[in-house]
User: What shape does this take?
Amino acid sequence: MLAATYKGPYRVKAVDKPMPEIEHPRDAIVRVTRACICGSDLHLYHGLVPDTRIGQTFGHEMVGIVEEIGSDVHKIKVGDRVVVPFSISCGECFFCQKGLYSNCHNTNPFATVSGGFYGYSHLTGGYNGGQAEYVRTPFADVGLIHVPDGIDDDNAVLCADAYPTGYQAAEMANIKKGDSVVVFGAGPIGLFAARCAWFMGAGRVLIVDEYDYRLEFAKKFAQCETLNFREVSDMVWHLKKESDWLGWDCAIDAVGCESRGNFAQRALGMTLKLQGGSATPLNWAIDSVRKGGNVSIIGVYGPVPNIVKIGDAMNKGINMRMNQASVKRNIGRCFFHIEQAHINPKDVISHRFPLEEINEAYHVFSSKLDECIKPMVIPPRAA
Assistant: This one.
């Protein structure tokens, strides 16, 4: 089969790889009809993530058709159209039973950090991902989610990660009716977080980024205010002024480790593969919310020190929530909002690439070429 394969930093190529096989009675094989490239994939592509191995197939946003099932799979049938959530969950451990599916204790040897994820480094289990024609899916009865008939593949694939992750970002911000919400980052996750903030009852939503084309798109997609941080001399002063000097009720960090704010920290990640990154947007969030406000962290950071203003957060009494999204817990609500025409997730898809052109897809997305918002990857056997 054809599959995207990691060749080293800034090098991903579509090559022939062996077909995945059933390795456990609870496995299924899914023929991928749509996949996407996520901002988290860029951390791998840029060489920031420890234990990203040559030969790995990336991709954790996918939808497809079940081609084969193991002998102990009963809820999923061959021919079912399914979303494959980015996190792999057993459904039985302490964390899965609490709805913390991305923290599953049985799908990753390094489970003290996170559960297993498709198409990421071996620190998250080393599972091959869905930027391929086929993918093996463990715990199929738990992880695979039937796509409602009224939702097409283009919308469904966004429900594997980006849309429910943005939804959870807004949920973790604990938004109350009329609250003011500032979102840092106008990539797909930030766009979905800003749009979903309205679902939670927000009274005002502002999204912050440095790329004018993304901010223009945010005005239409998220129906929110926008701010280019390059155009203000003091970001925190400006945000305080915008909130009558009280501070915003809620702030969402949808940027994570690749913020441009601290070159030294980002360089540490590049050279030593310690995916820490700059905490500039997180510190802006801490500084810009009011005392007793809420900060939601959905952007991905690594384990090394990030120089976070934790003392300021403590003294201001800020409530901070963070996690990888538990797609399985929120996907029903995400489907509902699509079916009720509250949102059309596929509107964020700006580019479509055949799997054979995966290297170009990563280059365009990484370099912000051609006003790229979100690239979709279409395997040869997608029809």
Observations:
- DSSP finds 13 helices and 17 strands in the chain.
- Residues 327-339 form the longest helix (13 residues).
- The radius of gyration is 20 Å.
